[in-house]
Design a protein that fits this description.
158 residues, 10% strand, 3 strands, Rossmann fold, mainly alpha
């Protein structure tokens, strides 16, 4: 499971090169390098779950670099699923909505957090356990026929 992520909460025009390089390194390259190694080391019938974000489906100002890196993870996962399918290895992405974590709260006001929680049909922030249960399912034998998918776990935000 790849759960690397940092948030850069800035408008695209304000992002410095070093900030962009860092978010690409952490959010995307780390997943790429892990998958490259997994391709030769993961046992047949193995499972891969990469964490993305529902932000890739929204057009939220100040999330451009973050959304771009997470969208890249989604596409990389779909291709990896195709490449590994012949070995029975599944690869999927889980895209959480707003989850009450330190990363989510970073750089946001209380009003920002309330607004994001209200966007969900369930009217609350997600909890880490909401996401963990979906990941547990995807790595189980019951999910052996699910691969190349991006599962939105977002309380109905989109």
């Amino acid at each position: 499971m790849n759960n690397a992520g940092i948030l850069l909460f800035k408008e695209i025009a304000q992002i410095r090169d070093d900030e962009f390089d860092r978010i690409v390194d952490v959010n995307f390259k780390s997943v790429f390098y892990t998958l490259r190694e997994a391709a030769t080391k993961l046992a047949d019938q193995g499972r891969v779950v990469n964490i993305s974000s529902t932000v890739t489906r929204l057009m939220l100002p100040k999330y451009g670099a973050y959304a771009a890196t997470k969208a890249a993870v989604e596409q990389l996962t779909r291709i990896f699923a195709r490449e590994m399918g012949k070995r029975g290895i599944t690869a999927n992405t889980v895209s959480p909505g707003p989850v009450d974590t330190e990363l989510f709260r970073s750089g946001k006001t209380a009003a920002d957090i309330e607004r994001m929680a209200a966007m969900a049909a369930l009217g609350r922030l997600g909890k880490t356990d909401d996401i963990a249960q979906v990941v547990l399912f995807l790595v189980s034998d019951e999910a052996r026929w699910i691969t190349g998918q991006d599962i939105a776990v977002n309380g109905g935000i989109v």
